[in-house]
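Side project, low priority. Logging it here so it doesn't get lost.
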Amino acid sequence: MASRLPPHWRLEQPAEGRDLALRLQAIEFACSHQFTTSAYRFVAYRQIPGPPSYRQALSAGRVWIGLDATALTLGPVGFALASPSGHDLHIDELNVLPSWQGRGLASALIERLAEHARAQGLHRLTLTTFVDVAWNAPFYTRRGFAPIAPDEGGPVLRAEWQKLIEKKLDPSTRIAMALQL
């Protein structure tokens, strides 16, 4: 996967920060509101994790942020949050502010996650996403992800899939995917 990242983008893996946790929450909130015009409006109105969740992920080294070096005062404009899961690195969240989408940041974050996973000896990136939302499964497919059965994923993916079933969400609207590294 060749990087399309313009030279002014910076990717970092920060350790922690109170203000940073609030910024990540705001990014996820803005991204969730893209669902208000989709069949999955409930995503826009779900409870977004609070700053303590983001601080914990930051302290554990599970967050990568994207900054535009030409607009550093804005802070991060996108982030990825991932969890080791068996031989996989599971992408829990990948969010880029709507006004910054289409500039290659999400692809660059995926690339950075892949580099990190390879360095850790992991075999693939995994995730779950909506089947028919343009910035979900079709986006990941264009970046080399392929469908997998949920039981072929690591423990984090399997637990996430089980939560979908427990919440009585239609499993046909979701898909588990993996990118072989």
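Brief comment: Helices lie at 18-32, 51-59, 105-119, 137-142, 155-166.
Revisit when time allows.
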